[in-house]
Amino acid sequence: MSYQFESQYPGDYEVKKTILEIGRRMYAKNFVAANDGNISAKVSDDTIWCTPTGVSKGYMTDDMLVLMDLDGNVIKGNCKPSSEVKMHLRVYNENPDVKAVVHAHPPAATSYAIAGLPLNRAILTEAVMGIGEIPLAPYAMPGTEEVPDSITPFIRSHNGCLLANHGAITWGKDAMEAWMRMESVEYYALVSMYTNALIGQANELTCSQVDRLIERRTNSGIYTGGRPLCRNCGPDGVPACAKGGCSHDHSGDSSSHTCSCGGSTDEEKNEAEMVAQIVRQILSDNRFRG
Description:
Blueprint lengths: L11 H17 L9 E7 L2 E4 L15 E4 L4 E3 L8 H10 L5 E5 L2 H9 L9 H6 L5 E2 L8 H6 L8 E4 L3 E6 L2 H25 L7 H13 L46 H19 L6
Parallel strand pairs: 6-7
Antiparallel strand pairs: 1-2, 1-5, 2-3, 3-4, 5-8, 7-8
Helix pairs in contact: 3-6
């Protein structure tokens, strides 16, 4: 197969330079240890530069990078590509809009992946607009086709996902966007972790607030990301409404998410009942009778 440069993509030098820079940042921020993690980016419709196996991402040189086609064939390079390039290739083949992929093991996000928890609550405006929901892919054996199979349901609808008991993967229109999304995923996880550990609760955004953020996200040209769950929604995405008639659609990026019943959530109902009990106790106390 002949490799041909296509002008709508950045050149080899630019892509390789960016991959090396991301590798240094990834290692410096402790998003990987030892030889963990991998990075890839397109230079044509069917060719990518990717990082090698068995090399620290903080100490790579451009001669270590590997040029491959989207079928997994090595075109150029003296090193072997990572076995985990399989999930990169799946992303590119499933979503042609993606131009770069980053896989790392950032500590907070990986902790959520180990705990079996997605990052899917609407607690941070920047996360809702920038990356959206970060779902959890089921456990898969590293280096096998199980890994790309596990992330396939999210490739077109989201900007990345957690890998159960493994780490995280993000993608974007270029290598730097894919990396920035990885940073955002870790920041989202850290804020969520601190909020739950130090305070014990999160003041999640309402459904209407999430709607407005997603509308702004869409207007800015970000059409993927999924929808984080808003304040009144339970773990399954269904609101605990006291009345029927709600329309809560969490599929895709629909902004037609409305609560038409006008009813209270179970939490609000319990709070109202508690207040009512206090009032009744006060009124029944002899000290308050006229």
